[in-house]
Amino acid sequence: MGKAEDIIEALGGAGNIEEIKACATRLRTVVSDPSKVNEKALKKAGAFGVLSAGAVLQVIVGGEADGLAMDINDIIG
Amino acid sequence: MALKVLSPMPGRVANLSEVPDPMFAEAMLGPGIAIDPPRNPVVVVAPISGTLASLFPHAMGIETEGYSILVHLGLETVGLNGKGFTLLKAKGDTVTAGEPVIQWNPAEIEAGGLPVITPLIAIQAEADAISLLVAEGTVVEAGTAVYEVA
User: Fold this and answer.
1) What confidence tens digit (pLDDT) does each residue in A19-47 have?
2) What is the pLDDT of residues B11-70, one digit of tens each?
């Protein structure tokens, strides 16, 4: 699986992702059920860190955030 | 061989802990320092020579063999959608350290309610891989070497 797929899976699957977008260095995402998010798996998928506030998560991925958000949005449609 | 990282603009050299964003303050992206700019229009120059691997109105990432340096102009500035920033280069361009890349006016951004302190990060470097070349609190010019990455 690619990195985008790994991140989707770690965020609890496509159905759990309400919104995902990128800024320069991180993915900003809103999930339906925060308990389905697996932080360890996110780090394994290449995230440097994860910041969460309830249903709003920031996945720190560095300069590739833009491309990853595009890939993820392509996959989850 | 160590890489010297230049301050991308004039300002006060600050500890990353002063940056009100845990991603930077806790060095999740990597170690570095922050530059607190003057509140007037400033030209932001490339901190190292390399390729503009990522370029946004409010941020640039420059890569060169084994190193990646990020300049993030202010915080939450992505939400401005480029307003208040002028790009002088394009993504993918090769730049020389000290070459102008972005223009912005921290006074204008701050008046809009956003912090203007600017992290200068050695992406994914080890915390002990960087050595400061100037003391925190020093006011530097654009192009002054502020730290070195091993």
Assistant:
1) 999 988 999 999 999 999 999 999 999 99
2) 999 999 999 999 999 999 999 999 999 999 999 999 999 999 999 999 999 999 989 999
Tell me which residues of B are annotated as active site.
72
Topology, domain A3-76: Gyrase A; domain 2 (3.30.1360)
Structural domain boundaries enclosing B24 = 3-149
- Taking CB atoms and an 8 Å limit, are B28 and A48 in contact across chains? yes
CB half-sphere exposure, A25, CA atoms < 13 A: 34
CA distances from B133 to A34, A52, B6, B111, B145 (A): 43, 34, 10, 32, 7
CA distance B61 to chain A (A): 7
CA gap B139, B145 in Å, rounded: 12
Closest-CA residue of B relative to A66 is B54
Say whether residue B72 is in contact with chain A using an 8 A CB cutoff: yes
Whether A23 is a known active-site residue: answer yes
The CATH number assigned to the domain holding B14 equals: 2.70.70.10
Q: What ipTM describes this predicted complex?
A: 0.79
